[in-house]
Amino acid sequence: MKLLGLMKKEFHRFFHDPRLVISMLLPGVFIFVLYTFMGSVLHSEEARELRVYRAGESVCTTVIEQVIAENGDKIEWLLLENEEEARAEVEEGTATAILKFTENFDSSLGNGAGVNIIYDSASEDGSYFYAIATSVFHKVGMLFDVTAETVKDSSQMGVDLMTGLLPFVFVCFVFTACMSVTLESVAGEKERGTLATVLVTSAKRSDVALGKVLALSCISMIGALSSFLGLAGSMPKLMGFSLEFLGGYSAWSYLLLLPPILCAVPLIVAAIATVSTLSRSVKEASAYTSVFMVVMMVVSLVTAFVPHIGDWVVAIPVLNAIVGMQGILAGELPVWQCLVGAGLNVLYTAVLVLLIAKMLTSERIMFGR
Amino acid sequence: MEEVIVRAEELCKTFPLSRKQRRLEKTTAKKKVAVDGLSFTAKRGEIYGLLGPNGAGKTTTLRMLSTLLEPDSGDATVLGHSIRKEKAAVRDCLGFMTSELKLEKFFTPDYLFDFFGTMHGMEKDRIAERKRELFSRFGVNSFAGVKVGDLSTGMLQKVSLVIAIVHDPDVVVFDEPTNGLDVLTARVVTDFLEELRAMGKSIILSTHIFSLVEKLCDRVGIIIDGRMAAEGALGELCGELSLEERFFKIYRDLKGDIL
Ligand SMILES: Nc1ncnc2c1ncn2[C@@H]1O[C@H](COP(=O)(O)OP(=O)(O)OP(=O)(O)O)[C@@H](O)[C@H]1O
Ligand SMILES: [Mg+2]
Predict the structure, then answer these.
(1) How far apart are CA B204 and CA B217, in angstroms?
(2) Which chain B residues have a beta carbon less than 8 Å from that of A12?
(3) pLDDT tens sequence across B147-178
(4) Given an 8 Å threshold on Cβ–Cβ distance, is A201 in contact with B70?
(5) C-alpha span between A319 and A324 (Å, rounded)
(6) Which residues does ligand 1 sit against, CB inside 6 Å?
(7) CA distance B251 to chain A (A)
(8) Which amino acid residue places its CA nearest to atom 4 of ligand 1?
(9) Residues of A in contact with B111 (CB under 8 A)
(10) B73 inside 8 A of chain A by CB
(11) What's chain B's average pLDDT?
């Protein structure tokens, strides 16, 4: 009962203040507008005309054609005769890519079939073709190896916008959402002396801590959901093409990204709440939290550049969510990884809640000078 | 009427001083003894006053009684519940009022009353009944739906008082009841305390204002440097002298001269 009462109070506070609700929803709208705008500046409206050298046959090629046509572009297949010359053309930019299927590709699926894409990741048409081709292959079910080479050396290779950067951007927005509500509710209440008023009642400290973390997590998830919708909605525009035809990376399939990040929200909230309980003022708490955020950003940016980081990463809070999302975007479904990561996040959250409860009983932290 | 409700025995509290505090207080001591073996009793239906100068340890004592601070040694019981071992039980039979405990500006008195009732584990019906009674008795009804942030100081004071006794505690602890209040609001508070006494509650208040003690208190304990310098019923303690004269006599006997 008391726990419920404590949570209800947080919800009441939030939902009865339009300013808070708007400030929680605004980032999503902002992302959508900004990215859609960026997309329309980055990508010309002109139809692309792709020239791709091909060796071997597969039904996949017709699907690729269809997706490209869906996007209002054209593709011309060229027969691959001299790979050296074709590579030189790709390098120059006169051809888009080279696509090499193994012999009897369609009939040997799951049995040694493979495909190799050679493209220039620095060219827009090149990465466009690469993104579409790989999603088509993923769609077919990965019964074969896909290898990719870029014609320029790898130092020039940009980070894959989709799998690398997107989770990072997303986590940043989610973190900001958690930060705004948690700082205000925990550090703010402590600073204003309203937290102590609850502490003279017989409400358990653990209920006070848990009530805050649970309620604030729910509220932050609204923010996360808003930025998610903004991001998912603007992604086709930002990337300059849509894969909706495939049912591939359509706005809906981004939904898979939600579970990992939503599992990370309570942990982020609990971490900020811990710091807030320790601090004397909102100012102090937000200073510490920004340090947090910078560390998190740096670490997660690193994972965007390091492709196969190893399984130990699931043990690291927040990072596990980022890596999980990267995996999902790359077309794998790292189920056990995500589950272990989510489980560990819940565990960490529980530990932090206990820690907060402990700190609420500490007179030094609550009433020290 | 002689039933002892609150009994404090040899309460001691020492605070570690940070370097900054040491500089502020111009001392090299690493610790500050705030309360030093304080004992007293408060009985049912009386107002007990803790009178002392700044820094005497009044606030610290009251915070220990209301379980916000834990004594280093000694103990106190509220209706037989130890403030060290039965914190939750103490919190449910004691109301603590101080200007340091604030109400969230955003909520209405109505909402907060329900909320704090729930926090004390009260049933819905009981909260509603108590709200009807207290709100009309102390005139809160007319602004029960106005956000706390929009209330005048007088109204806010009434709301804080009413909410502090939502759970119908037998003991009310009040730190500096009239500090910083204008004459009208101060009057609201003193009337409120007299009314509580009439209801049979025990009230422990702290103050450094002689006239407040003379006006309200049945018994008084004079605290100087965390120790009980004198204690007794107001009449007994003062005899012929006024409370102020009596206080300074005790103070001079103890500390030599003022300042
Ligand atoms: N959290 C704390 N840390 C360090 N010292 C403290 C702390 N709280 C109180 N003190 C010190 O303990 C002594 C007693 O303080 P207390 O607040 O109990 O006095 P008081 O009688 O309420 O005085 P006042 O009339 O100023 O309110 C003071 O010297 C004060 O500086
Ligand atoms: Mg004081």
Answers:
(1) 9
(2) 107, 111
(3) 999 999 889 989 999 999 999 999 999 999 98
(4) no
(5) 8
(6) A 367-369; B 15, 17, 21, 32, 34, 52, 54-60, 208
(7) 28
(8) B15
(9) 12
(10) no
(11) 90
What are B25-36's pLDDT values in tens digits?
777 778 889 999
∠ at Cα B108 (B107, B114), nearest 5°? 95
Interface test with A, best of B17, B24, B100, B118 (most A CBs within 10 A): B118
| CA triple B162-B120-B84, angle to 5 deg | 110
> In this predicted model, which residue has the larger pLDDT, A103 or A154?
A103
Which pLDDT belongs to residue B162? 93
Q: What is the pLDDT of residues A60-75, one digit of tens each?
A: 888 888 888 887 888 8
Q: In what order do the strands lie in the sheet with B227-233?
A: B94-97, B171-175, B202-207, B47-51, B219-224, B227-233
Picking from B81, B97, B104, B159 by the largest number of A CB atoms within 10 A of its own CB, the best residue to mutate is: B104
Amino acid letter, A43: H
Evaluate the CA torsion angle B132, B138, B142, B146 in order and state its sign: negative
Element at B58 (helix H, strand E): helix B58-65
User: Rounded to an integer, what distance in angstroms lies between the CA atom of residue A61 and that of residue A66?
Assistant: 9
ipTM for this model: 0.89
Of A68, A62, A47, the C-alpha closest to A243 is A68
Mind telling me how many Å the CA of B120 is from chain A's nearest CA?
Answer: 6
Give me the phi and psi of A80, to 5 degrees please: -80, 115
